[in-house]
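Below is a filled-in request sheet from our internal design queue. Each sheet records the structural input a requester submitted and the sequence that came back. We keep these sheets so that new team members can see what a complete request looks like end to end.

REQUESTER: design group, bay 2
PRIORITY: normal
MODE: inverse folding
CHAIN LENGTH: 130
BACKBONE (tokenized):
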């Protein structure tokens, strides 16, 4: 079963993060959906997460992971040296999420908000769930 990454569909940084994952996911393990989509909202409800959240979420093995935990778990399936970031999961969650939340709070200011999506290739488009 593939992992599903839920991301903020209006955020440039989040969009770039999805493209980053796609380029480094040689086995196409991850599929993607925006938090704002009907599917994204349904998954948030299914896993008892806030439907107005603006966080990175990973659904994997019938569990939902948020924020830094989700981001670090994603690295396990990426190519090259990115999987070596996964041991940072041993850092206490409050400390990891503190750093995560600094970026999350400032992402629109630093990276902007987008009005339209980039149209991916047909192969990549298949990995977007809606």
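RETURNED SEQUENCE:
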């Amino acid at each position: 079963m593939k992992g599903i990454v839920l991301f903020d569909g209006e955020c440039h940084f989040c969009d770039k993060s999805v493209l980053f994952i796609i380029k480094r996911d040689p086995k196409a393990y991850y599929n993607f959906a925006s938090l704002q989509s009907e599917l994204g909202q349904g998954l948030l409800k299914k896993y008892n997460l806030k439907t107005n959240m603006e966080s990175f979420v990973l659904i994997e093995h019938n569990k939902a992971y948020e924020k830094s935990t989700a981001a670090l778990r994603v690295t396990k399936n990426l190519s090259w040296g990115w999987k070596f970031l996964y041991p940072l999961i041993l850092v206490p969650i409050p400390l990891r999420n503190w750093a995560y939340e600094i970026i999350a709070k400032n992402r629109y200011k630093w990276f902007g908000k987008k009005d339209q999506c980039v149209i991916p290739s047909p192969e990549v488009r298949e990995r977007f769930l809606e």
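SHEET NOTES:
- The helical segments are 12-23, 38-46, 67-75, 93-111, 122-125.
- The CA atoms of residues 15 and 118 lie 9 Å apart.
FILED BY: M.R.
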